[in-house]
Amino acid sequence: RGLNYGDGLFETLCVTRRVPRLLDYHLERLYSGCERLKIIPPKLALIRHELEKVAALRNSGVLKLVLTRGVGARGYRPTGRERCVRILALYPFSRVAAPRSRTWHVRLCTTRLGTNITLAGLKTLNRLESVMARSEWQNSRIAEGLMMDADENIVCGTMSNLFVRRGTRLMTPLLDRCGVAGVMRRWVLSQTDALNLKAYQLRLRWKDIANAEEVFMCNALVGIVPIAKLIRRG
């Protein structure tokens, strides 16, 4: 069902010193997604053990977990008797995904995110919007693209979340209609009090980003990356 319908979820974890980072956040998002999609996952202790065992095979890298509803008969309707299937893969870091990237050049994509409040925030296997957005440019100096919804609100990157700071206001797009709620996004929001910042989740437009004092993007692999250049088109 994962191949036929995209019926599943995935997590991409950063491995450092043979340990998967932010593991609790990843597992909480995964199991929350399973609950929303009505997928019956394996026991939490088993998944944690498998992730830690595979992560220990490499000092650093990218650990990906794909979890599907399982094998079923042809047709969209699940029977409820499917047995969850999971696939783990461990990769070396790519150039873009390598930790401690210094800055990013970012462009605005023309591919839009569709509104779906049922799936908003989830990291499902349906990533075709990101695939189409990422195919819009070949310039290797551009590391990421910003994606909008149908109302021209900035939602997220093709593979990351966005933050904008003005004074003590730290703003990030509201993900109640589309987009993926990243684990690094969650971590950043948890740190705002300690940094004397006030966090806001709201609709952001291009002008909010262009007029910001600071803009950065984040995901579990690259951490937090400042934006050095924003490109409206091209």
Describe the 3D structure.
The protein has six helices and twelve strands. The mean pLDDT is 94. It is of the alpha+beta class and 234 residues long. A hairpin with a 2-residue loop joins strand 8 and strand 9 (169-173). It has an eight-stranded mixed β-sheet. The protein has a four-stranded antiparallel β-sheet with strand order 2-1-3-4.
In short:
The protein has 234 residues and is α+β, with helices and mostly antiparallel strands.
Helix and strand layout, with pairings?
Elements lengths: L1 H4 L2 E9 L2 E2 L2 H15 L6 H12 L4 E9 L16 E7 L12 E10 L14 H7 L7 E8 L4 E4 L3 E6 L2 E5 L9 H8 L7 E5 L3 H5 L3 E6 L3 E9 L3
Parallel strand pairs: 5-6, 5-12, 9-10
Antiparallel strand pairs: 1-2, 1-3, 3-4, 6-7, 8-9, 8-11, 11-12
Mean model confidence by pLDDT? 94
Order of helices and strands: HEEHHEEEHEEEEHEHEE
Neighbour order of strands in the largest sheet: 7-6-5-12-11-8-9-10
Largest sheet: 8 strands, mixed
The proportion of strand residues reads 25-35%
Query: What's the shape?
Result: globular
Number of helices: 6
| pLDDT < 50 runs, ≥5 residues | none
Beta strands, count:
12
Structural class: alpha+beta
Key attributes of the depicted protein:
alpha+beta, single chain
